[in-house]
Amino acid sequence: MALIAHISDLHVGSLSFREELILNVIDRINEMGVDATIVTGDLSDNGYYNELKQASEYLEQFKTPLLVVPGNHDSRHLGNICFEELIKDRYGTLKVKNHGFKVIGLDSSEPDLNFGKVGRSQQSFMEKAMKNASKEGLFKIIALHHHIIPVPRTGRERNVLSDAGDILMSLIENKADLVLSGHKHVPHTWIVHETVFATAGTVSSFKLRGKDTPSFNTINIDEEHIDILLNTADGETHPLAKYENRCR
To answer: Which Pfam families does the record cross-reference, listed alphabetically (predicted)?
Structure first.
């Protein structure tokens, strides 16, 4: 049905950023021939114009349909304005009808703050987009930077969405199929009421915990299953989770 790449947390401009990592991932994803690439924020480390400009040049090298949302680091130092100039929409949708899915991207960042918020306006936008996707029989994917459910192995919880409860209820009530996020740099999955929640690691920096390595996720969606794979910087691929596909 569909193969999707999910990358996050490039952190261009950080001392921990490694250009060779993102260039390698771009080549790997282009060679896979994925149906879409989803980028869930923190393209830059400080929101500086030159950082976001460099990040936008990496994004241009993807040969796939692309949906990008900002992270909290992208909204520092007027980065929210620079993002709109260089990368364009801060939220929106990507419909790949011939592969049967729709991605709904949300901006969960707040200028110069680390915590996230979706807000009522975007919540209404998301609900309407999910309802329309359901009418068309499309697999519904939500993408945002901040995690909605706390992620294990990430220490004390400080930066979850301030309106996480309301957004979680909207997702469950409208039967979202897959929710993608980044922010914590730790790959993990949860399933709540048949909605799958998957976070990605950092794709091109060494802002890591323990022995974790830079990585990105790929999601293979077929008639029966949602298969999530972890792709590490050393070229290895490991199963992360496999769930039943209820959108059949």
So the answer is: Metallophos
- Give pLDDT tens digits for 144-174: 999 999 999 888 877 679 999 999 999 999 9
Any idea what DSSP says for residue 115?
S
Quote the distance between the C-alpha of residue 75 and its chain's center: 16
Kindly list the distances between the CA atom of residue 109 and the CA atoms of 36, 38, 75, 80, 238, in Å, as whole numbers in the listed order. 23, 17, 6, 9, 30
Domain map (residue ranges) of the chain: 2-244
In this prediction, residue 99 has a pLDDT band, given cuts at 50, 70 and 90, of: confident
Q: Residue 243 pLDDT more than 90?
A: yes
The rounded distance, in Å, linking the Cα atoms of 35 and 4 is 6
Name the 3-class secondary structure at 59: helix
Q: For position 248, what pLDDT does the model report?
A: 59
Instruction: Determine the CATH number of domain 2-244.
Output: 3.60.21.10
Exposed e or buried b per residue across 135-165, where buried means at least 16 C-beta atoms within 10 angstroms of its C-beta: eeebbbbbbbbbbbbebeebeeeebbbbbbe
Structure confidence by residue, pLDDT tens digits, 61-79: 999 999 999 999 999 999 9
> Nearest Cα to 5, choosing from 42, 41, 33?
33
Residue 115 burial (C-beta neighbours within 10 Å; 0-12, 13-18, 19+): middle
